[in-house]
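writing this on my phone so excuse typos. first protein, seq and then structure
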Amino acid sequence: MRFPMFVEMEGRKVVVAGAGLIGTRRILALLEFGARVTVVSPGLSREVRELWEAGRIQCEIREVAEKDVGQAFLVVAATSDRQANHQVALWCRAAGIWVNVADKKEECDFYFPGIAREGILTAGICADGKSHGLAKEAAAEVRSLFAEKYGPGAAEGGSIHRKGRSRE
């Protein structure tokens, strides 16, 4: 069972090995929370290339190497190569860096939760790596609840508004 923990990501270096479908989703989530993302991958998805060209991320167009993980706060191993992902996990463990391994939950130090955000409210939903579909569905329900109960921009002014009432 995983302990839910919220971590300050603003300005922290995160290395993502791989820029396919899963890598791209991870990159977008990390950017949403202010991480400074470096992608190392021999190929880039269209979306990742656009982020790079817009200056929102850094990219190294090549296979990942041990030197890439050295100064990272977190690492995501999301290549299409099982052995490469495993090797990234080993490098991270040796360096004491938390790693998320997209293709093997047993090698993960942390999971990416389903995320629900509305204003200053953030909820992370996790099914202990056992059911991404269930976590995704639950996150969608929480997003709907946030929107319905608290409205757009919930609590931006420091109080939560409920159907015209304010709760401090």
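second protein below, same order as before
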Amino acid sequence: MRIGIVGLGYVGLTLAIVAADCGMEVFGTEVNPEIKSCLKKNRAHFHEVGLNELIEKHNGKKFFCVESFSADKNFDAFIVTVGTPLQKNSKTPNFDAITSAINSIANVYDGKQLVILRSTVSVGTTRKIILPLLEKISGKSAEKIFVAMCPERTLEGKAIQELKNLPQIISGNNQQALGIAHKIFSKITPNIIKAESLEEAELAKLYCNTYRDMNFAIGNAFCLAAQSFGVNGAKVISLANKDYSRSKIALPGFVAGPCLEKDAYLLTNNMPDSESKNFMLTARRISDSLEDAVVDFVVKKLQGGGGDFIRLGF
């Protein structure tokens, strides 16, 4: 099989190299000159166990970093792996990178290839944004083109191992799309889970990250609760967890990274106002607030004011 991957960041590059290692011919495009420069030297622009060895093995043989996809080659699928950042002020998703990625395949896409969205997006993005854009590019109706949502769920540092062992969630806008997605990912892992809709697959990824984010937020909330009683929150959490298998409360601290700090906002983006929406956003805001709390503490200390590290759980 021959696939094209748009975006060779962490998600795209690890998938591309593992797919090549599993026998597929992979072409990848990337706009970042630093990433392209690293690949010319047979290395990744980030650390990932075993990745550089596989790049050296397959670069120029099964894997090719190209400026654009050639119309002379027949592709089975294109996989979009670019990020979905948030608008700075509104905390709503910015789809510019994704729509640009879709437009970048316009010269080779004719509606016959499967287009897989692997980016983390708000619910409805695949059906309401990607599908209409592909209709416009191909001139075909939604029923006659093939789109899949197959979210990435690997852990940094273990991506090579996890891509081949973790269950892969796949979905499609029709049975043909689902079948092609299954054919591609079953070459990488025998563990395939079929979602019944594009929206189910979108939600599953958002749930994974938001669940972890909320677990960390609970630790921060518990710490603040303890502090309201004049007790060291981190110490109480450690006490509650010690040798007690049913208690795995996260220790307090900053929660960030490219996923956890935004996915709760992606999940709630199209959600009607409800208690569950408020619950998830409140958890995210608790962790968001820690940065300001630390800055406020440091400023007061420098100004000779009061305050104690116990207020922040340290």
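The longest helix spans residues 198-228. thats all i got for now
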